[in-house]
Amino acid sequence: MDGHGAGIETSSLGQRGETAAAGWYRSAGYRQLARNWRCRDGELDLVVTDGQTVIFVEVKTRSSGRYGSGFDAVDHRKRRKVRTVAARWLAASDRHWAEIRFDVADVDGRGHVLVREGCF
Is 73 helix (H, G, I), strand (E, B) or coil? Predict the structure, then answer.
């Protein structure tokens, strides 16, 4: 398989993970505000709310635990980037939020979702 095909597989895995995470939040009573929101600084995987709090969710999907968990992949550089893009989203929002939170959703190859709330 060439590099292009591998990218398509990774993209598809990531999309399935984002769909699973969105379903997890929906079933927990959250309302989705945005998915794959992009600006010049990057992209937010998922933005949800419980009414008063806006939650920025970084979704990491792994086909196996071979290279660590999805939580391990959200290092200080990734956290900084998510914060920067979240600030852009907030600036574009027409609402003032009482609180903001940053979650990481770790999705395995079978679609099981494990969420760490407020982890950065």
Answer: coil
